[in-house]
Amino acid sequence: MKNRFYYFWIVLGLLISCKDDDNNVFDQSADERVAAAIGELKDELTAPANGWRVKYRPENESGSYYVLMKFDDKGYVNIKTDLAANNGEFHEQTITYRIDNSLGLELIFENYSFFAYLFEQDQATFGAEYEFLYANKTPDGELVFVSKTDVGTPSTIVFEEANANDEALLGREVSENLTEYNSSAVIVYTIILPL
Amino acid sequence: MKTKLLSFFFIGALAVTMSCNKDEDPNVPIKNQTPSTDELDQYIQENFVEEFGVAVRYRFVDRYVDANKRVTPPKREVVIPMLDFLTDFWVEPFVDVPNGDKFFRKHVPAEVIFIGSTIYNADGTVTLGVADAGARITLTEVNDIDTNNKEWILRQLGTIYHEFAHIVHQRYNLPPNWQEISPEGYTSLGSWYNLTDEEALRRGFVSPYGTSTFNEDFAELVAHLLFVEDFYEIYYDFEDETGCPDCVERNDGREKLRKKYNAVLSHYEQYTGVDLLKVREIVQQKLQ
Predict the structure, then answer these.
(1) CA-based Rg of chain B, rounded to a whole angstrom?
(2) Inter-chain contact B124–A123, Cβ cutoff 8 Å?
(3) How far apart are CA B2 and CA A49, in angstroms?
(4) CB–CB of A131 and B193 under 8 A?
(5) Taking a C-beta distance cutoff of 8 angstroms, is the pair B274, B99 a contact?
């Protein structure tokens, strides 16, 4: 009686074991599909001849800045803004960007820029961001992103295709409501031991 | 008997079905990474990755920092000056002393992360430096680089030497009897910042933060020994005690600090062959 169970388990084992071809449910591997998705967004970003125009609001209700961005396929982005802080440091900058994936595609401005400057205001609670999650493309060809780092309701950032003369939009006036941050907080060193 | 035979058969069959195919290559193919043409990447590749096996990360990747903390990336234009600063004040003082070259290469963490701002914690405090298990040192306030600003320099050196010292006790433990030198003086991770420098000194510590744990005590002592110009005057030399009760208390602290000082020096000497006083000498020359 006991022996029959062995046969039962063996037969069951044979019946439910994998097929050889179970490995690739998709045509491509996960890495390849991620690379393809990143490549597609990169193509979108680099496509417009005049780059992109963003009416940027750190928070959905806050005032806005005009931002013009031109992405190239080597990983650099040229950013022009009307933010006059730091003697016009952010009027025009070229930094690197990266399209990465975590839960979805994300666009990251990898070096300090206009976005990081605003992010850092008010002890980094100003509500700006330099890491954008890609949401979708609208029927009008706009690219929609949402903030990755906003606490609470993340703000939406819409990239519209820029026109040749959009630089006229950059008023380049001094933004007076931003004050320099003041770091006089307690200093903490930490060490994380291996588990 | 029959059961035994059957189980052998079963195990054998299992082994056959589960073992690898011959054509399965255990070596995962290395992903093709085209070397970066970016000038900063090339500079880092040449001077840090190939030279010391240290990857310097200046492009922002959010997993380098705890998710509940907020930071900004460094500016592109500060990266090379910052690397030169590291060469000047971290690499050179160690590699230029006997046994130091070997010591530096063997213990240097695999990753150095540059953060532009300080680390803004959710509770309103800021963090200056972080070292993770000897594998990574995170340097903050890189955007504020100013090699004429002694305060900034000393803050960076405090972080670098402090975190580099953690690697030593992680590798070789604390010096023997370290815990017994000033056992009553320790506070805790949550309350050290209520102490003043003076109170820390009376307890036998170089800084309030040093009182938080044995390990921090060690790291703080090494760091202060290297970068504090008046180290001996403040922490080592006894004051005249006549008619000065405060001096007596401070000297009590110095008594303990002298024990720690000797313990640290001989610990480094024994396990790494490096004379920290020689390192200090070079650092102090550069600071002049």
Answers:
(1) 25
(2) yes
(3) 79
(4) no
(5) yes
